[in-house]
């Protein structure tokens, strides 16, 4: 609530207030908010903005006094608001609420107003209050709301980022890349964060109010990001998104069909907080990215491949096998997700020791409760790297996701379990994010852990394990002379075709080794939860001294076609025991069946205000009919998603859509398309289109 007080005679009162709020005006340009759809004044804290006040007669700075008041009040809840008074001074000083007159024209004065770099963000109401010895007059400036946001351009703001290219990427870029698939088969999808679109800023502040956190805490990016990680999922607070990892998405939208956050946030806001169906990790991360960038916190989406889900705080991933070397599924509660997407936000961490600010993990996917609520973070990436799991928030869980050891336990005849194998470098691979200023993928694994097997990395793991529920695991004696690995050629199999892998065994000893290998291929959700076994068999094995043997392995389309779930994810598990040494062999390999892209082709040049024809082509790779196919198109400056209910697509058929658009914004743009179909998921495409001015 902005209020201005002035000591004047009763006959001199405020006639008008001009907040200079136009998108191409100096306030919004200098505050980097000219891209927001709203026509309200949107400013960033810790930075000066300007405004005009017109009185009924000329203002006399010597005899008349002005005072500015800001009032932040909840709209949807009954929590306490904030009232701030701003004095008129001759010289502005940083880190204070102050204002000064910088120009006077007849009855009008132009004010430069300083905002506090640690002020609570939010939507402030504005009133001019003028008072004299005979009374007080109020001039409400309705509907001139002023939005105050975090400021990565201000050195005194906790979210300050000192690189302009990074600020443009992590705050101002409304298009991004999200990675999925497996470590060997990294897929890419473009996501429309839509943080500047119609109603999105209002939706983000609406979400904060749902958090039931005092508005005085809205000044702290640590608290705001933790609140957002809880509120983007609907698990215990009627937040934005309902998750579903089942095979059916009746009554909602399949997670793979979303291609942006705008529709989700508008739907939630316009329904007064009815959760939106359905999400999986990349949707949670896409929406979290949108909310935090919209509020001014530098944020990026990060994908961790072979991401562990540690359920018992052991900081290890425990796999239990029986005497026949088969996995005991009801005891193995830990899982490894093919990939998991979270966010990183940039901020200082004054609550932690020096050196632990910077990038912080913020994860809205509801995996495990944290302090009674489904949320995760902010977790210092530096603390994860060093194994400092005693630092808040949720560092043990994030550490386990990226750097836990995978331990195989075999059941003994007395019912107890013994440790038979440790994999020290399978978890947390190819941790990826979009590059600054381009669509390239950047590997940031080194930010989360030291090189695998290095002394620093082992020290971090053992330091972290001391805080886990099994602190006496290390060191574990192992002596192995036969190794087993699984390899895939190239980018891997396409859905609709056969999957071909290779099992490679090496005998490093000078003696012959024999074994019986048991292999099992299972269809699974990308979260590592197994659905069903597709194929299972044994392979007799003889290895000569120092021999390396490659065993080709094939899974035919007809064997898996009726079993697939979302993402086309499969796991090949190989186990065995060397007869001569009783050494246990055990390894797993996750792979996915790649889906075709939607091919988007503009017909002719794109010009602002001129109709543009775009062709979208898709070929069904399956020998099955696709039922009830829906296409979703967004981007190119559109303020909503265009949905096209196509119907059925015949087996192996090619579909061509012709759509028309009228671009509204000049410059480089992206057009996104995705397909919603129960039988074939994760089908999408993107086109880069340069729109010419009129």
From TrEMBL:
Functional note: Catalyzes the cross-linking of proteins and the conjugation of polyamines to proteins. Responsible for cross-linking epidermal proteins during formation of the stratum corneum. Involved in cell proliferation.
Taxonomy of the source species: Eukaryota, Metazoa, Chordata, Craniata, Vertebrata
EC assignment: 2.3.2.13
Co-factor binding comment: Binds 1 Ca(2+) ion per subunit.
Predominant location: membrane
Active-site residues, Swiss-Prot/TrEMBL: 281, 340, 363
Lipid bilayer topology: Lipid-anchor
Cofactor(s), by name: Ca(2+)
Family, per entry: Belongs to the transglutaminase superfamily. Transglutaminase family.
Subunit architecture: Interacts with PLAAT4.
Subcellular localization(s) per the UniProt record: Membrane
Top-level division of the source organism's lineage: Eukaryota
The name this protein goes by in its record: Protein-glutamine gamma-glutamyltransferase K
Cellular component terms per the entry's GO annotation: membrane
Keywords, in A-Z order: Acyltransferase, Calcium, Keratinization, Lipoprotein, Metal-binding, Palmitate, Phosphoprotein, Transferase
UniProt GO MF annotations: metal ion binding; protein-glutamine gamma-glutamyltransferase activity
Residue sites binding Ca(2+) per the record: 403, 405, 452, 457
Annotated Transglutaminase-like domain residues: 273-366
Pfam families associated with the record: Transglut_C, Transglut_core, Transglut_N
InterPro entries registered for this protein in UniProt: Ig-like_fold, Ig_E-set, Papain-like_cys_pep_sf, Transglutaminase, Transglutaminase-like, Transglutaminase-like_sf, Transglutaminase_animal, Transglutaminase_C
Catalytic activity of the protein: L-glutaminyl-[protein] + L-lysyl-[protein] = [protein]-L-lysyl-N(6)-5-L-glutamyl-[protein] + NH4(+)
Gene3D superfamilies: Immunoglobulins (2.60.40.10), Transglutaminase-like (3.90.260.10)
């Amino acid at each position: 609530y902005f209020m201005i007080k002035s000591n004047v005679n009763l006959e001199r009162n405020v006639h008008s207030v001009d907040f200079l709020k136009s998108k191409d005006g100096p306030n919004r340009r200098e505050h980097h908010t000219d891209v927001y759809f709203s026509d309200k004044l949107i400013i960033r804290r810790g930075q000066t903005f300007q405004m005009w006040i017109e009185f009924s007669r000329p203002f006399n700075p010597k005899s008349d006094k002005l005072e500015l008041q800001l009032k932040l009040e909840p709209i949807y809840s009954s929590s306490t608001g904030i009232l701030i008074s701003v004095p008129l001074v001759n010289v502005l000083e940083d880190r204070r609420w102050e204002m000064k007159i910088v120009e006077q024209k007849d009855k009008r004065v132009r004010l430069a107003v300083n905002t506090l770099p640690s002020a609570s963000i939010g939507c402030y109401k504005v009133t001019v209050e003028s008072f004299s010895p005979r009374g007080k007059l109020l001039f409400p400036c309705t509907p001139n709301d002023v939005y105050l946001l975090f400021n990565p351009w201000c050195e005194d703001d906790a979210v300050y980022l000192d690189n302009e290219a990074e600020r443009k990427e992590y705050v101002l870029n409304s298009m991004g890349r999200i990675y999925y698939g497996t470590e060997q088969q990294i897929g890419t999808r473009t996501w429309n964060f839509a943080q500047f679109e119609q109603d999105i800023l209002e939706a983000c502040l609406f979400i904060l109010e749902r958090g039931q956190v005092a508005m005085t805490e809205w000044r702290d990016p640590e608290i705001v990001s933790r609140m957002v990680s809880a509120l983007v999922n609907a698990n215990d607070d009627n937040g934005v998104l309902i998750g579903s990892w089942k095979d059916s998405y009746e009554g909602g939208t399949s997670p793979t069909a979303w291609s942006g956050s705008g529709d989700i946030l508008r739907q939630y806001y316009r329904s007064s907080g009815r959760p939106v169906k359905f999400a999986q990790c990349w949707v949670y991360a896409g929406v979290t990215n949108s909310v935090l960038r919209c509020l001014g916190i530098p944020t990026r989406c990060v994908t961790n491949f072979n991401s562990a889900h540690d359920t018992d705080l052991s900081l290890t991933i425990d796999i239990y096998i029986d005497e026949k070397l088969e996995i005991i599924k009801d005891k193995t509660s830990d899982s490894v997700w093919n990939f998991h997407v979270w966010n990183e936000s940039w901020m200082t961490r004054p609550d932690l020791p020096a050196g632990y600010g910077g990038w912080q993990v913020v994860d809205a996917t509801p995996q495990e409760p944290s302090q009674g609520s489904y949320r995760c973070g902010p977790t210092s990436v530096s603390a994860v790297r060093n194994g400092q799991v005693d630092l808040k928030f949720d560092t043990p869980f994030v550490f386990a996701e990226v750097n836990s050891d995978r331990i195989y336990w075999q059941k003994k005849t007395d019912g107890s379990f013994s440790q038979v194998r440790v994999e020290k470098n399978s978890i947390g691979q190819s941790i990826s994010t979009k590059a600054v200023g381009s669509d390239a993928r950047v590997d940031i694994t080194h930010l989360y852990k030291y090189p695998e097997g290095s002394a620093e990395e082992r020290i971090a793991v053992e330091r972290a394990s001391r805080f886990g529920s099994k602190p006496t695991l290390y060191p574990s004696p192992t002596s192995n002379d036969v190794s087993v690995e699984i390899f895939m050629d190239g980018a891997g199999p396409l859905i609709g075709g056969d999957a071909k892998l290779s099992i490679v065994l090496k005998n490093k000893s000078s003696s012959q080794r024999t074994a019986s290998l048991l292999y099992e291929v299972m269809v699974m959700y990308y979260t590592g939860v197994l659905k069903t076994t597709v194929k299972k068999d044994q392979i007799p094995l003889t290895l000569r001294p120092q021999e390396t043997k490659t065993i080709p392995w094939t899974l035919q389309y007809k064997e898996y076609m009726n079993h697939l779930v979302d993402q086309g994810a499969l796991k090949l598990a190989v186990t065995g025991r060397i007869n001569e040494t009783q050494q246990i062999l055990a390894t797993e390999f996750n792979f996915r069946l790649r889906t075709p892209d939607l091919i988007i082709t503009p017909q002719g040049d794109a010009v602002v205000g001129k109709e543009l024809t775009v062709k979208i082509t898709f070929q069904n790779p399956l020998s099955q009919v696709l039922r009830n196919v829906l296409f979703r198109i967004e981007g190119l400056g559109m303020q909503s998603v265009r949905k096209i209910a196509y119907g059925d697509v015949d087996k192996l058929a090619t579909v061509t859509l012709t759509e028309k658009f009228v671009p509204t914004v000049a410059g480089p743009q992206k057009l996104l398309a995705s397909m919603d179909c129960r039988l074939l998921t994760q089908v999408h495409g993107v086109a880069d289109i340069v729109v010419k001015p009129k």
